[in-house]
Fold ABC transporter permease.
Amino acid sequence: MKLLMFSIKRVLIAIPNLLLTSMVVFFLYMMMPRVMGTDYDLAIIWMEYKKWIMSYISGDLGISSYYRVPVTLILKEKMKNTLILGVASLLITYVLSFFMGRYAGRHPNTLGDRLISGINYTGLSFPMIVVAVYSIYFFSFELNWFPSNGSVDITVPEGTLEYWLDKLHHLILPATVLGIVATATYTQFLRDDIIDNSTKDFVRTARAIGVSEKRIYNVHILKNSLIPIVTFLGFDMVNLVNGAIIVETIFTYPGIGQLFIKAIDMRDHAMVMNLTMIFSTIMIVGNMIADILYGVVDPRIKLE
C-alpha cells in the first residue's frame, strides 16, 4: 500500500509539470514566424491550446508541412529505430559497467583497477560528439568495420535474415558510442559503492560468522551496491533523448533525434512542436520513474 501511495504521489507531481511544459511548448509554437502574421487574442489562443492538447493526448499530432503526411506515420518508423538504438546502448552500458565496476570494486588499487579508472576518466573527458566523430573516422573509414551512416542498406530485402543482420551491423557503432559514454560514470559509481559497502558492519558480521568471501561480495555487497545503478534507469531515459539527437545526427541514423534536427531545418512547425512535447514527456516520466525506483529499492528512503 505504501508503494502504491508513493507512486501515486509521484505521478500527481508529474502531471502539473507535463501541463506546464505543454503550455510553454504551445505558446512558443504560437510565437513562430509562420503564425505571427495572424492576430490572436488570448481567448482564441487558449481554445487552440485546449484543442491541441486533447489531440496530442488522443494521438492526433497533425500534418507535417514538410512530408505532407500525418506526423504519427513518420514517428512510428523513426521511433522504432530510436528505441532499438536506446535498448542496445543501455545493454552495452549496464553489461560493461557491471563487470568493470564489480572487478574494480573487488580489487581496489590494483593494476586492473587503475587501468579501468584510467579508461573511465578518459571517456568522461571527451564529449559525445568527439567520440562519435573519431569512431566514424577510425572504425568506418580507416578499418572499414562498420557503416558510417543509416540503419540498413536499402538494397537488402526487408524481413530477411540478411536484412536483420545488416541492421545489427549498422546499429553496433552508434549504440556503442551512445552506451559507452554512460559506462564510465556507472562503473565508477559501482566501484566506489562496492568499496564503501565492504567496510560496513553487516559485512564484518558476515565475515565473523564464517560466510565465504565469494558469497559476501556476490550476495551482500553487490546487492546493496546495485541500488544506485538501478535508480539510474529513469535518468537513462532522459540521457537517451539528449544522446540520440547527437548520435543520430552524426551517424545520420533515421530516428527521432535526427528527425527533430531536420524538422527544425525545414521549419516543419507541427513536427517540431510535437517532438519537443514528446522529448519533454520522456524526460518528466524518466525522472518520475527514477524517483519511484529510488524509493522502492533503497530501504533508507521512506515511502511517504
Q: What stands out?
A: Residues 161-197 form the longest helix (37 residues). The radius of gyration is 23 Å.
